[in-house]
Write a structure and sequence with these properties.
The complex is a heterodimer of chains A (325) and B (285).
Chain A lengths: L1 H28 L4 H6 L8 H10 L6 H13 L5 E2 L4 E2 H36 L4 H15 L2 H15 L17 H39 L2 H8 L4 H38 L5 H10 L3 H29 L1 H7 L1
Antiparallel strand pairs in A: 1-2
Helix pairs in contact in A: 1-12, 5-6, 5-8, 5-10, 6-8, 7-8, 7-10, 8-10, 9-10, 10-11, 10-12, 11-12, 12-13
Chain B lengths: L2 H13 L1 H18 L1 H4 L30 H37 L1 H16 L2 H12 L3 H12 L1 H15 L2 H8 L4 H37 L10 H10 L8 H30 L1 H6 L1
Helix pairs in contact in B: 2-4, 2-12, 4-5, 4-7, 4-8, 4-10, 4-12, 5-8, 6-7, 7-10, 8-10, 9-10, 10-11, 10-12, 11-12
The chains are: A mainly alpha (325), B mainly alpha (285).
Chain lengths: 325, 285
């Protein structure tokens, strides 16, 4: 097991190094003035002394190797630089936005896994029947819809036409709600973005669960349980479902990146103040250091979550523990 | 492939309702894309009406914020969405085939290195990476295609590799190797033909993913500003607040429905192809 975890760890370290390096190189190798990428479009109006000061500050006069060293040091000490559009240190912005993204995508991941597993189990159990075909068709359509469009339609119907839920944001502005009232306000704002995220990410779990359940249902011990006259519900949920859950754990990890990416688009539609929305804002204002920092934070989150899932996986699957132990 | 085989495929396809439905839809979309100038009532780039008009006899789906006909925009948008999807999928499948075949055939160190690379690519959150790249290299048709295909080759590569692993142990491949056939000849004459069916179904599935990704990128304002895709139309609808007015019914709903229909028709075609080309799967179902 130790070896397995070490291998995974090395792989994630490589991902992080590659992405950090890509981030370092992008503003330096892309055609155009690197100054624009580092300090914004205002560079055109600066005097040469001011430009020189920026070059000096970012160490652009140093050798490329030295620059890379400084860059690495800054990233790992949380020194992401300064957002020239929002006129604030980037790390502050990230600290403000990250909790909302974790709330939205964390809940989204948990809910879509639970829903996918339940429907996958039902679909496999009723294989070939109308229920199965209907569920399959429904989930295929769900996965074909653009996430942002689902969000726009939900807002149009539930917020604007019916007036049931707030249109945008994570909580009401300037309301000074406290305690329980604030909690309810936050939940109300969360319902639509969360629904959208679950709708678009539930299909992969459903498909894997259905497939894995079909395989398990063909096993001998299920036949034996049936022959012994064990109740159908007990076979379905205790014998079959628990064993079919393993592949879902793998998909859970792979969908982390998808969910966080999906959250980027959904946060944009609902003006939800998470990291994804921050990335969109920075793209709109061409705030390059901020684009890079949001990308790195999302990548770090995905990698850390993946690694945590890898640590937990052996406890779910006795086979992994034995083979690598 | 000989005539007999194609006849057989056609028989299976026509008995496969899902696949037939998918292929028919694709043909319709292709016709719309090809004949857009003849079907569209207006030039989508011209201001032909006043802004924010409701649907009427002249403008079937009303006009947008600068008075362009939304219906014509949609028809022309088919071209962009379809073209980006197909080209991006084509490039990622070619890359995927190349890497999958090399990894599968040469096994050992090359294989484990390439598969590690695939694992790496699959971990990276692809949409944020695409946003980053698109923001730096600038929005244009070819940049979008490039960015999508650079990320999407990984999972086809894995599928193709496992196909090559089975092909490699087939009698005719071993026979060819034992009489001293060169590696190049084995790959092109014996391995590649066996890979093509799987690559075809992977291509169709990749196209459906690429269309969705293109829509997301365009929606975030990273699409080509000169060629409006369905995603770009939705970007403007969002930016002008169409979804908080009645305009959502004719400005927001139709482009999304078109994207969904195009994606689902590619997906249906892909799954059916998989079923047709993989007899084992067919027997099971």
């Amino acid at each position: 097991m130790g070896k397995f975890v070490a291998g995974k760890f090395l792989q994630y370290v490589i991902v992080i190094i590659l992405m950090v390096t890509l981030n370092f190189l992008l503003p330096r190798v892309m055609p155009g003035n690197p100054l624009v990428f580092l300090a914004g479009e205002d560079v055109g109006f600066m005097s040469s002394a001011e430009k020189e000061a920026i070059l000096e500050k970012h160490g652009l006069n140093d050798s490329i190797v030295q620059q890379y060293g400084t860059y690495l040091k800054n990233i790992f000490t949380g020194e992401f630089g300064f957002s020239y559009q929002q006129k604030r240190p980037i790390i502050e912005l990230l600290k403000e936005r990250l909790p909302w993204t974790i709330l939205l995508s964390g809940l989204g991941l948990v809910l879509s896994t639970i829903i996918g597993v339940l429907f996958g189990t039902i679909s496999a159990w009723k294989r070939g029947t109308k229920t199965d075909v209907n569920l399959l068709t429904m989930f295929m359509f769900l996965s074909a819809m653009p996430s942002f469009w689902v969000g726009m339609i939900l807002v149009s119907v539930f917020s604007v036409q019916l007036g049931w839920l707030p249109v945008f944001g994570a909580e009401s502005a300037w309301s000074n709600l406290k305690g329980m009232d604030r909690f309810i306000d936050i939940v109300k704002h969360l319902i639509l973005p969360l629904t959208t995220l679950v709708l678009i990410s539930v299909t992969s779990t459903f498909m894997i669960m259905r497939y894995s359940m079909l395989n398990v249902l063909g096993e001998d011990y299920i036949m034996i349980a049936k022959a012994k006259g064990v109740k159908e519900k007990v076979i379905r949920y205790k014998h079959a479902m628990r064993n079919a859950l393993l592949p879902v754990a793998t998909v859970f990890m792979l969908s982390l990146g998808f969910t966080l990416g999906g959250a980027t688009v959904i946060e944009t539609v609902f003006a939800y103040p998470g990291v994804g929305r921050l990335m969109f804002e920075s793209v709109l204002s061409r705030d390059y250091p901020l684009i890079q920092a949001t990308f790195l934070i999302i990548t770090f989150s995905v990698v850390i979550a993946n690694f945590l899932a890898d640590l937990i996986y052996p406890f779910l699957d006795p086979k992994v523990g034995r083979h690598n132990g | 492939m000989d005539k007999q085989k194609w006849k057989h495929y056609w028989r299976v396809l026509s008995s496969n309702k899902l696949g037939l439905f998918g292929v028919s839809l694709l043909v319709i979309f292709l016709c719309i894309a090809l004949f857009a100038p003849f079907i569209a009532p207006f030039d989508p780039t011209e201001r032909v009406g006043s802004p924010f008009m409701k649907p009427n006899g002249v403008f079937l789906l009303g006009t947008n914020d600068i008075g362009q006909d939304i219906f014509s925009e949609l028809l022309y948008g088919t071209r962009v969405s379809l073209l980006i999807g197909v080209i991006a999928a084509l490039i990622s499948i070619i890359l995927g085939c190349l890497i999958g075949v090399i990894a599968g055939y040469f096994s050992g160190k090359v294989d484990s290195f390439l598969m590690r690379l695939v694992d790496l690519v699959l971990v990276i959150p692809f949409l944020p990476l695409m946003i980053l790249l698109a923001a730096f290299i600038g929005p244009s048709f070819w940049n979008i295609v490039l960015v999508i295909s650079l990320i999407s080759w990984a999972s086809p590569a894995r599928v193709i590799r496992s196909q090559v692993l089975t092909l490699k142990t087939k009698g005719y491949v071993e026979a060819a190797r034992s009489i001293g056939t060169g590696v190049g000849a084995i790959l092109t004459r014996h391995i590649l033909p066996g890979v093509i069916p799987i690559a075809l179904s992977q291509f169709v599935l990749a196209a459906s993913h690429s269309i969705l990704i293109e829509a997301s990128l365009s929606f975030l304002g990273l699409g080509d500003p000169f060629t409006k895709s369905w995603g770009t139309i939705l970007y403007y609808a969002q930016a002008r607040g169409a979804f908080i007015t009645d305009a959502w019914i004719w400005w927001v709903l139709p482009p999304g429905l078109l994207i969904t229909t195009l994606v689902i028709s590619f997906a249906f075609t892909g799954y059916s192809l998989e079923e047709i080309l993989n007899p084992r799967l067919r027997k099971e179902q």
